[in-house]
Amino acid sequence: MAYGGPSMNPPAMSGAVPGSGNIKQVKLERESELRIEVSEEPLSLRVVNGTAEIFGSELPPGNSLTFPPHLKFAVFTWYGATIEIDGVTETDYTADETPMVSYINVHAILDARRRLAKASSSDDPESSQGPRVIVVGPTDSGKSTLTKMLLSWAAKQGWKPTFVDLDVGQGSITIPGSIAATPIEMPLDPVEGFPLDMALVYYYGHAAPGNNVELYKALVKELAQVLERQFVGNPESRAAGMVINTMGWIDGVGYELLLHAIDTFNASVVLVLGQEKLFSMLKDVLKSKSNVDVVKLHKSGGVVARTSKVRQRARNYRIHEYFYGLSKELSPYANTTSFNDLQVFRIGGGPQAPKSALPIGSDPVSNPLRVTPVNMDDRDLLHSVLAVSYAEEPDQIVSSNVSGFVYVTEVDVARKKITFLAPSPGILPSKILVAGSLSWLESLEARR
Ligand SMILES: Nc1ncnc2c1ncn2[C@@H]1O[C@H](COP(=O)(O)OP(=O)(O)OP(=O)(O)O)[C@@H](O)[C@H]1O
User: Fold this and answer.
1) Which residues line ligand 1 (CB under 6 A)?
2) What is the set of domains in the chain, with CATH numbers?
3) What is the ipTM of this complex?
């Protein structure tokens, strides 16, 4: 069970119409969508008639939903709908060319495979395993969006697929720098996104897998093994399978990491979004595996490209959201404690062995999985985000998941005290904390 975070948010802010006076109705023809970028101000929206969905989650008829500033999304209708928006948007336009039919066709095939898996004997691990789908593609190809749709459509039909997020850059389930998995038991909330309360989270600590490739791979393996064990005792989630979202780094080491993920999770369906070259490379390298399908899909014209600055800002919003909620409805708790009450560790770096102990001619390499204690007066601790590990001993840190995160707001070296924000009151579930390179300047954030 995850420790605090946005799971404590109330459901989507329904009914809180800002009453901007800028109300307009948009009539959508069948199989078309209204693409919206919310401005600096929240936006309200409701379905006046017909049916419509946001990334696979059907909108409740009549009820208004309020969307926070800067959100980018599309309201899609299969059969036609009239949508009312209340507020000023950054942009909004309708589009009738979408890849949605190809996406729903993929869903139909996955659905058939889930039914086959469910009908087969649960003693046979092969046939009782539902589809393990991995979504790959360059940055801004719509991977997270397709993942959401596939999960929401599956959940709408009563399946409980497992969502796996390997994208440390953005973090759909919890704060960036983590990899995580969670069962999806109902269509996703179009505003809140993925639930956190049942998530299994591993903290990598950096926004890019390249910072410590070996650690990233070790955590991916750890997560996959835990899920594998959970599937053994749970035929329902085994049949529902998984949908895995990946990062947009697809060249060089990034490509190797994709292959590593495909292999580690035993993916049976690889969905390649928006890149011919990646598709043919994967198709070629996986052709010997008869049980893996590699499928090419078009990127939606609605996907909004983000600069690295915008991505950095999005990461900060995610951290802010973890502690304060999507619309500042949560209040984190400030805690001051003695240096002695906590132990902070960092993973990676440091020499593996002295040169004298190595074969002649080889250089000492730093051990990427080495766990080293961090001095509490280390200046880098201030404003850093630390994960609260479930490890009981430091040497278990790499193989342990985390219960949540704290944010260091003050380090008082003279009094040997550290002050941090935590999402829940009371003592932390563990004294062992893990640092990475992720920091967050809350004071700057507050001015956004
Ligand atoms: N059809 C659409 N209409 C409007 N906005 C969309 C549409 N599809 C996706 N978006 C928006 O475009 C942005 C990028 O999409 P998404 O996050 O799915 O891409 P990605 O490939 O996962 O990106 P990353 O490489 O960062 O992981 C998101 O803000 C998403 O909500």
Assistant:
1) 33, 35, 72-74, 137, 139-145, 167, 170, 248, 300, 302-304
2) 6-97 (2.60.120.1030), 100-297 (3.40.50.300), 332-446 (2.40.30.330)
3) 0.98
